[in-house]
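Teaching note: in complex prediction, the entire set of molecules is handled at once rather than each chain in isolation. The prompt given to students was simply: 'Predict the structure of this complex.' The entities are:
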Amino acid sequence: MRKWMSALTLNQKLALLALTLGLVAIGARPMRGSVVTIDARDLARIVATEVDHVGVEELADWIVAGRSDYRLVDLRGAAAFASYHIPTAENVPLAALPDYPFGRREKIVLYSDGGIHSAQAWFLLQAKGYRGVYILRGGLDEWKDTVLFPRLAENPSPADRAANEKRTYMSRHFGGRPLTGGAIQAEAMPVEMPKVEMPAASPAAQLAKKKRKEGC
Amino acid sequence: MTAPFFKYGMFGDETSLVIAFAIGIGFGFFLERAGFGSARKLVSQFYLNDLAVFKVMFTAIVTAMLGVTYLSWIGILDLSLVYLTPTYVLPQLAGGLILGFGFVVGGYCPGTSVAAFATGKVDGLLYLLGILAGTFAFAELYPLVARFHTATSLGDTTIPQYFNLPYGLVVFAVVVVAVSGFWAAGLVERAFGAKGVEERSHP
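The expected output is the structure of the full assembly:
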């Protein structure tokens, strides 16, 4: 055996090593299965620093800019989704979430009515090893209050005016309307949700977007 | 500690550029040490008298593939988070042909031209200028080729996924192909390695 080994050149030994490793690797299952370990400290850090949050105005900017490097997920039921959803959202009820085919490299933004279901879904996806998971801060409620029906200051200072203009523009863009003075008093305002139907971004466009973000 | 470190947020964009710089310098160093800073060495593989490029590249592929396989098998590397270049069949075939044409004509591929220029070779510099000009032309003409550029998209796919094969089997197959390739390359070199060709003219 010794003699036979020493008769080989270094290259032949390396080739033999590669073949052996390759042979053993036939049994390798390198993709992670469903068993995962959670780094509790890491999770606590993410939660404490709130880096996992996306604000509603930020999201509105993304939608207006036509960005397609994220997936917006509506966790509510199909009926609620049909009556209104944030443009570009896809409906994934919480029960269907574990088996939903997200890409591991995707940026996933979750929202529900408030924040509880999103937070639960966030943990679920984190536990499954998805790292690019975000919660829409305040959920759909916050979206309504801030983007669709923003309350504008009655007598805006010059500094507020620019902000007001942007809010008004955003609100109109998404089919809502800004509220001022009187409307705020009327607490039981008839909030009709706008009908929004936006074509989903094509997969090719999404890929093209992604490609520019990363790679050699 | 799990890799990929960048995806797990161990460092940010700025640090990643510093790391990329260090890796790039290392890559260039080993290209040069393998003799790939010389166009003579590189093109001699097209004349079949020195297949060092083929052997070095395939060795790198096999080493990296086995490393990645084992690291992810023992759970240090999360393979599903490693970036994949999306596959576009026809555009990438066309791009490969253009690159191969440039390789034969110019004697370098993009990485080796940088290594050649770093050691003061004028043809490396000219090749680099050609890359810049080509990049500029592509960017300016992009609207004309935009449709083709994103045609026949397969997304982020791998051979095991596309052909629905066990991952480990593909790893083994690639190793077997590589080792047989090395053996065949030796035969080819012996057959075509005319004694008159002296590719060791660089220092």
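Point out the following to students. The helical segments of chain B are 13-33, 39-43, 52-73, 89-106, 110-118, 122-149, 159-163, 167-192. Residues 37 and 116 of chain B are 4 Å apart (CA to CA).
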